Amino acid sequence: MADLRPFRGVRPSREVVQHVVVPPYDAVSVEEARADVRSNPHSFFRISRPEADLAPGVEACADTVHALGRRNLDVFLSEKWLRQDSQPGFYLYRQRMGDHVQTGVVATASVDEYDDGLIKQHAMPRADRAEDRTRHLDALGANDEPVFLTYRAHSFIDSLVKEGTHALAESDFTTEDGIRHTFWCVHGDLNWRLAEAFLSVPALYIADGHHRGVAASRVHALREQREQEGGHGRFLAVAFPHDQLRVLDYNRVVKDLNGLSPGVFLERLAERFEVTRATQKQPDRAHRFGMYLEGTWFQLTAKPGTVERTPTGSLDVNILQRNLLGPLLGIGDPRRDVRLDCVPGTHGMEALERRVDSRAATVAFALFPTGMDQLMAISDAGDVVPPRTTWFEPRLRSGLVLHLF
Predict the structure, then answer these.
(1) What's the pLDDT tens digit per position in 190-238?
(2) Is the pLDDT of residue 57 over 90?
(3) pLDDT at 250
(4) CA-based R_g, the chain, Å
């Protein structure tokens, strides 16, 4: 079952919400966050990324930085820029990006269900990021950013969510990237009807924010060891039906051909791929890739026998790594090799062309987006995907609501 519950959210008022909300802390550089804080004292980066509230060159240890985040949260509460609701409830969060619309239920999820594997993962978070967020959440005493969850679409939950969006929205605004964000409070018996409906959902899946899930689990364990009471057994989450989510391509560029000439490289490619001149830049199906080399787009189609018949082995990122990036270009560890870079699909094929044409890279590969069904099958199998396999868009904004524990 999916144990999602209402909670007393801490959130900004209509008057300041658009000044408070920001992109996720890890989606911008510290310089970008610092620039936002300088021009906007309401910026949520002061809480989610408190080092942005320090002047450049100021040295501070991690403990000092995280303590600053808690002090800033106290300031936001005392100034009434953030206020805690008097009654627990669910919230609904809709994002509209062009023609794409997704509406999620904002709730608290169970750390016990996470620890027991009922909230399933498909990625292994970086240890340094998980440790940083653990210390951040512990100092803050709150989940300031949600874990992005999904579940197999459920028609009855869809109908309940639709009912909730008939109410007057608490906030409705469009951010600088053109994405419209609408936020509702759920009132009355719709809360328990939603909670009861989720009990029939067999599993939740982490779409994004795996390190936040790990951090929530670790903070709960730490606070239990200290015998600290509170709501640390639950964490902030937004749950979307899987058929509303959009996974974009996550493409690759490589600085050089590992000592091969373009001609020899193409000959070697033909051993594992059918190589043709491309009539379109983006691949039109799985197991097919676009490649930009020396001003020309090629189409690469994986030959029979090059694809493993497992949920993880059949991922295009693994096909590319096992048949091309590793054996031909010598990239053994795609997470750490500085010759490899990844480019989100939001940047378009033109970004790949620019990298190659400017000689910042020698070759670029366009991948077909990983499907939600693939990700859930991998999670169900207890497996994980390679780093930088998925790019979810739109990203969740931070600062719309917090969960104090």
Answers:
(1) 999 999 999 999 999 999 999 999 999 999 999 999 999 999 999 999 9
(2) no
(3) 95
(4) 23
H helices of 148-300, where?
Answer: 155-164, 190-198, 210-225, 262-269
Residue entry with tokens 């890279």 = 361
The sign of the torsion formed by the CA atoms of 339, 345, 268, 304 equals: positive
pLDDT at 20: 98
Residue 335 has pLDDT above 90, yes or no: no
Burial class (CB in 10 A: 0-12, 13-18, 19+), 383: middle
pTM of the entire predicted model:
0.91
Mean pLDDT of the chain: 96
pLDDT for res 388: 85
Q: By mean pLDDT, which of 48-52, 56-60, 341-345 is the weakest?
A: 56-60
Integer Cα distance of 172 and 180 in angstroms: 7
In angstroms, what CA-CA distances link 368 with 46, 50, 170, 300, 347? 37, 37, 37, 12, 15
Taking 90 as the threshold, does the pLDDT of residue 62 lie above it? no
169 contacts 95 by C-beta, under 8 angstroms: no
The pLDDT score that the predictor gives to residue 308 is: 92
- Closest alpha carbon to 312 in 371, 374, 373, 365: 374
| Residue type at position 319 | I
Task: Give phi and psi for 396, each to the nearest 5.
Answer: -75, 135
Distance CA 286, CA 275 (A): 15
Please report the domains of the chain, with CATH numbers, ordered by start residue: 10-246+394-404 (no CATH), 250-368 (3.30.1760)
Range list of H helices, 57-189: 62-78, 111-115, 127-140, 155-164
Task: Indicate left, alpha or beta for 230 from its phi (over 0: left) and psi (-120 to 50: alpha).
Answer: left
Angle at 61 between CA 31 and CA 212, to 5 degrees: 70
Of 215, 241, 216, 181, which is closest to residue 395 (Cα–Cα)? 181
Q: Is the per-residue pLDDT at 135 higher than 80?
A: yes
Q: DSSP characters for 248-263?
A: EPEEEEES--TT--HH
Does the pLDDT of residue 281 top 90, yes or no? yes
How distant, in Å, are the alpha carbons of 112, 140, 217, 276 from that of 116? Answer: 6, 25, 11, 48
d(CA 369, CA 390): 7
